[in-house]
Amino acid sequence: MEKEFDFFSDHSEAFLEMAFCPDYLEIPAHPDGHGKNTGDCGDTVEVFLCLSQGRIDEISFRIDGCINTRACANTIGRMVQGKLPEQAWAITPQDIIDYLQTLPESSNHCAELSCGALYRALAHARINIREPWKKNYTFR
């Protein structure tokens, strides 16, 4: 007989920490970058970036999705906080999957969804750095 999956004892500590992490949920008033990505599953991740002295000083999310998507988005927050935008561009869905250790294979698309939102936020921040007047025309 196959053992029944137990959410809390069968997931890694990293996964559980990221699935329930509330650290990145506050939305800044004037982000430097904003990216939104919706997956085929219907989950949506919005990423907000604030830069200071060329680094990602603050990252936050708005998430409408499952706990796996939340774990992936929070992992991105953990990985990019304080990094240069060029370093954040290097993060891949596989990096997120590896960090979480126990993300179900059927939910690998959650890592792709979260990375896509990050990449869009980074691209938006790049535009706002080159043309600062555009920041006044926010996502809202």
Overall description:
The protein is of the alpha+beta class and 140 residues long. It has one domain (23-131): Sufe protein. Chain: A (Alpha-Beta Complex). Helices cover 44% and strands 18% of the residues. The protein is built from six helices and three strands; from the N terminus they run H-H-E-E-E-H-H-H-H.
Can you give the mean pLDDT?
92
Which bin fits the share of residues in helices? 40-55%
Please tally the helical runs, counting DSSP H or I stretches of 4 or more residues. Answer: 6
Output the structural class. alpha+beta
Strand order of the largest sheet: 1-2-3
Kindly report the CATH topology: Sufe protein. Chain: A
CATH architecture: Alpha-Beta Complex
* First-residue to last-residue Cα separation: 53 Å
Q: Low-confidence parts lasting 5 or more residues at pLDDT below 50?
A: none
Radius of gyration: 15 Å
Estimate what percentage of residues fall within beta strands.
Answer: 15-25%
- What's the SSE pattern? HHEEEHHHH
CATH class descriptor: Alpha Beta
Q: Main β-sheet: number of strands, strand sense, barrel status?
A: 3 strands, antiparallel
Q: What sort of overall outline do the alpha carbons produce when their principal axes are compared?
A: elongated
How many beta-strand segments?
3
